[in-house]
Amino acid sequence: MSAPHTISKPNMLRGMVRFWLYDVGSASFVGISVMALVLMLLLLNSGTKLAAVPIMLSMIQASICAAIAWQLNRLAATEWANLVPHYSRNIVAQCVLVFAVFTLMTLSISLMIDIERGVEQVMLATLIGISFIYFCRRVVNGFYASFVLFMLLPLLPYLLAHLPTQWFYVLPVALLVMCYLLWREIKVLAWHSDARSVYLNGLEMGWVWMPSMRSLRFMSYLDRFLHPANFFIGPMLSLLLVAMLLMALGVGIVNYVADVQFPILFMLSQFSAVACTLVHWSRIQRWRAVETLYVLPGFDGRQGMIAAFIAAQYRLLAVITLNMMLVATLVCSLNAQFSWGMWIHVVLSTFSVCGILLGLGSAAKGVLHISLSMLVVILHSGWLSSSLLVQRQGESILLWIWMDLGFVVISMLTLWWGKKKLWKHDLG
Length: 428
Fold this sequence. Notes:
By secondary structure, this protein is mostly helical. The protein is built from 17 helices and no strands. It is globular, with a radius of gyration of 22 Å.
């Protein structure tokens, strides 16, 4: 009689490439981790030290945890999972293997290079990621809030700066406790009726959920103003733009009253870039809806639809730039350390990264292309972090502004190139 299969046997890797790299949802999150890792290694090999390295390490951990949460959600959405021998066990084993490999890799890198409290930041990012997976197992619809996981990443250095060094000893214990709690949930994982809807909605909307404000007349006007760029993503785009602006203004006032230095401009710039990425993420995921958009009245054929979509992207870019100008003006007025030169830099850099992402997104044909565009978000994160550090040190920001002007030119050229590629050969 043959010995029973155990989780340690090689067949636990069966189908791993298909499950993790061919599935668009998993491949997107894993792709972000791999791109962040490759970029970081290239920078380290060149001897360059960037402020973005800790964020990249955190991005790797957060993306892998999001991929694992997605795999477990898909497993809970699969009605026939228990009918296929070892299927559920293999998926869980692969999740453990992927998590272990990437965690060991990020911890090793943080130990080998000289990053202040780098190990603590990786452990904190891992703790947040595991907590997110646990939350998704307890609340299936919790995956809609996956954007919160990435929103916390730029805050980790500031959070660690206010934590005592004794937390270095608390984090490993907290990690072990969360791993134990998560394992208890995984052992009783079963089919859930809501898991499939979360899976399907996630493919189309990028797993971002916002409360409804559609009853407001202004929201209806903004929806019409952004049409047809928001056709695939729906009212979520308007909700994101308004919510980001209101939250940024509110936090800016709190910074002034409480005398804290929350990096609100950095956060607003990063999430504006992510919003531009989601525009084309949803367009690619809902590729069947292109025909529906094409037959709507108001477009003069294929070229007319393309021209209308590109014009709407310019309007979206104008709204994002206006949001950044308003928040930067508030920060500049309330914070004497924030110069008007920095105001120009933040506005121009946000405009350029959003323009580049919209242009690249227009040329994208698949999810892999959109995942690659996240590399631009990572580079912009490092660019903005470095400039904020220079500004705090009292150095001149003039060189950064001149480079921003060059990026603005690149963004306009990218938008022009993207217009030539948008829906090329896709419509008759």
